Amino acid sequence: MAPVEFVDQLSNQEGAAQAAELFGKTFGRQPQGVWAAPGRVNLIGEHTDYNAGLCLPIALPHRTFLALSPRADSKVRLVSDLQPDKMVYSDLAGLEAGGVKGWMAYPVGVAWALREAGFDGVTGFDGAFVSCVPLGSGLSSSAAMTCSTALALDQVFGLGFGACDEGRLKLIQAAMTAENDMAGASTGGLDQSASMRCTAGNALLLDFKPGLSPLQGASQEPFDLDKYGLELLVVDTQAHHQLNDGQYDQRRRSCEEAAALLGVDNLRVVADQVAAAADPDAALTQVLNRLEDPTMRKRVRHVITEIGRVGLFVDAFAKGDIQQAGALFNASHQSLAEDYEVTVPELDIAVEVARANGAYGARMTGGGFGGSIIALVDQGRGPAVAQAIAERFSTEGFRAPRALSAVASAAAEQVA
């Protein structure tokens, strides 16, 4: 069969040039600037952000580029390289939550969210998007779009938040509000934080415990694959990936209801109590026995154990214990498959084949219900492992997957 497709990244120069060219062709003028924001891969810590837990994402080298200029009125005109001949329109005047449909809800939602937050100086704009982040892959193409928009609007309207890490929290909130309230796609903040706060060569350890300052809630943890002769293979299964069909919200509600039944504000409180116990396994069992609903027990077990796995992975990788790091990947996937029930056959089979072909560990990444897996493999083994997955997919009658090699990359920035 044909070699599996590897998704190429665009350099900042290439992406900026393509976005500016599309802007010029569409709007007949040059943009004020071009901004880029990356997609992300979450190494471990899935469905923990909205439970006040821990996550460990890296920014991808694959980015969404936005060429943008402000307007004096409230109108928004947008174009994308996916449909370069089709301009879409909206108007910020009188706009309410859910008032924009389709892909433009994400960038328009950012401007709306900033205005709702009191930044009345944000007006309309023209924008042209070019992206190499695979769509529908669980690699957060939506956050790449909202974060590039947030940073662009911050700069052209002089809000002043994008220059420092603490200020970027305001832009992250606007990006989250756009997804949650305008686009109707639930998000807990991991994706936007990764796109806005990651640094090259590092994973971002995010702690969503309430009350932490920006510095307390994030730390840069070295993620040097070359040091250990490793490669992080990402395989987009191309299984349909959809998070706004109610499945995500069901699990989030289940966790919130469980926390209420346990008498705590969030499941992180319980996770910390379990971790501090003399016998964590016994403490976890006691917690689960307080919940009558068997499905709720499974959801809570995943969240508590997954929060614990994040710290263990950071420690294992720092020590060069790649066998343990891989085992934690495997345990995370098993928990997501059996307890959180967010995998699909394509994800499970891709993980199985990756392990059978020498991966130290493999797991689904992102919200699930489709999307991508990641596999920790020896350097240079990525193409062979991806090809083995593609061949198995062919025998299963699945769509052909596509792949990319991930390295820890930089956050959103102006590139032209």
TrEMBL record:
Belongs to the GHMP kinase family. GalK subfamily. It comes from Bifidobacterium aemilianum. PROSITE patterns: GALACTOKINASE (PS00106), GHMP_KINASES_ATP (PS00627). Residues 314-394 form the GHMP kinase C-terminal domain. Pfam families: GalKase_gal_bdg, GHMP_kinases_C, GHMP_kinases_N. NCBIfam families: gal_kin. InterPro entries: Galactokinase, Galactokinase_CS, GalKase_N, GHMP_kinase_C_dom, GHMP_kinase_C_sf, GHMP_kinase_N_dom, GHMP_knse_ATP-bd_CS, Mevalonate/galactokinase. One of its GO terms (cellular component) is cytosol. Its EC number is 2.7.1.6. It comes from the Bacteria. GO terms for biological process: galactose metabolic process. Residues 21-70 form the Galactokinase N-terminal domain. One of its GO terms (molecular function) is metal ion binding. Residues 106-196 form the GHMP kinase N-terminal domain. This is Galactokinase. Keywords: ATP-binding, Carbohydrate metabolism, Galactose metabolism, Kinase, Magnesium, Metal-binding, Nucleotide-binding, Transferase.
